[in-house]
């Protein structure tokens, strides 16, 4: 049964309920629109078993989702942890069958290019407003690797650029191949990052990154840029907490996934004074709860 049919079925039940109330006592006739609305909102939860499909538990978006659960008094709801890949797999499965699903989402992300999706409105501000992606380096990076530091300071690109790399990778290309293809088509942008910087001879630099498609895209692009500048680049995939810890304790040099000021606020506070905010690589990014556009829901408040 498609979602559309399910919604119509629930509407028929609501109409039958109102009809029966009209035939009953005056007390029953006091039933107002608020009760009908509550029934509709509860049915949304029932269609997804009161579950929100999330990603890895250490991600900032998961902390924001826990905050939303409290802010909107969604006591009956649970957030299912997993990974970015598991979340998108669940989304694809539901979307292909036009079934209801609610996921933690962020943009830029390739799923917005693949599917018709929308963010649920967040009147309580649990997920904050527009965010930025920052490049975060270990203390002393500018002294030890000044050429890399200069390039990272200039690193800045648009959501459309990142989406191009993400979509090609999700369509089957290896991330490094998708990254190289983007570099080949955007030599002018890359040249702006490296302009005036001398090449090095085998200096080592270590990136840490999380398995978010957005971060995989940016890390692979920058790794190839620095390799072309003579660096020996190491990339280590970890979860969000260990990613920030590695840069803060100096066991890694750089992360390209500093979502600020909300998503990674906990790590910024925890490691204050132990890292350098090198620069902003992207603006107007966003996190929140995401649903397919075929779902008849517009706000997180509708989950109550």
Polypeptide structure, described:
It is built from 14 helices and nine strands. By secondary structure, the protein is α/β, with parallel strands linked by helices. It has two domains: 138 residues, Glycine betaine-binding periplasmic protein, domain 2 (D-Maltodextrin-Binding Protein, domain 2, 3-Layer(aba) Sandwich), CATH 3.40.190.100; 157 residues, Dipeptide-binding Protein, Domain 3 (Dipeptide-binding Protein, domain 3), CATH 3.10.105.10. The strands form three sheets. Strands 3, 4, 5, 8 and 9 form a five-stranded antiparallel beta sheet that branches. Helix 9 crosses helix 12. The protein starts with a helix and ends in a 12-residue tail after the last strand. This is Glycine betaine ABC transporter substrate-binding protein. It holds the Pfam family OpuAC. InterPro entries: ABC_Gly_betaine_transp_sub-bd. It is found in: Cell membrane.
Question: What does the secondary structure layout of this molecule look like, with pairings?
Answer:
Elements: H1 3-22, H2 26-29, H3 33-47, E1 51-53, H4 60-71, E2 78-80, H5 84-96, E3 103-107, H6 111-114, E4 117-119, E5 131-138, H7 141-144, H8 146-154, H9 159-170, H10 175-185, H11 187-194, E6 204-209, H12 213-228, E7 232-237, H13 240-248, E8 254-260, H14 265-270, E9 275-292
Parallel strand pairs: 1-2, 6-7
Antiparallel strand pairs: 3-9, 4-9, 5-8, 5-9
């Amino acid at each position: 049964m498609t979602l559309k049919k399910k919604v119509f079925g629930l509407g028929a039940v609501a109409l039958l309920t109102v009809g029966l109330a009209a035939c009953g006592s005056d007390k029953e006739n006091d039933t107002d629109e608020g009760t009908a609305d509550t029934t509709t909102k509860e049915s949304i939860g029932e269609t997804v078993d009161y579950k929100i499909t999330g990603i890895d538990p250490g991600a900032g978006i998961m902390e924001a989702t826990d905050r939303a659960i409290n802010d909107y008094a969604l006591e009956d709801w649970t957030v299912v942890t997993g990974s970015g890949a598991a979340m998108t797999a669940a989304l694809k499965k539901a979307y292909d069958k036009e079934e209801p699903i609610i996921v933690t989402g962020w943009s830029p992300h390739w799923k917005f290019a693949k599917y018709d999706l929308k963010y649920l409105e967040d009147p309580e501000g649990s997920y904050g407003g527009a965010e930025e992606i920052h490049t975060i380096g270990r203390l002393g990076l500018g002294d030890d690797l000044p050429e890399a530091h200069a390039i990272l300071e200039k690193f800045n690109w648009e959501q459309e650029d990142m989406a191009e790399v993400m979509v090609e990778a999700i369509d089957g290309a290896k991330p490094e191949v998708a990254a190289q293809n983007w570099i080949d088509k955007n030599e002018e942008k890359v040249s702006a990052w490296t302009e005036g910087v001398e090449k090095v001879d085998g200096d080592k630099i270590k990136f840490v990154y999380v398995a978010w498609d957005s971060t995989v895209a940016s890390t692979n692009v920058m790794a190839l840029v620095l390799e072309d500048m003579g660096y020996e680049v190491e990339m280590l995939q970890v979860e969000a907490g260990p990613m920030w810890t590695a840069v803060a304790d100096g066991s890694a040099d750089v992360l390209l996934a500093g979502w600020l000021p909300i998503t990674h606020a906990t790590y910024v506070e925890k490691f204050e004074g132990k890292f350098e905010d090198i620069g902003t690589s992207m603006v107007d990014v966003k996190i929140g709860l995401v649903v397919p556009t075929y779902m008849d829901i517009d706000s997180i408040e509708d989950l109550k």
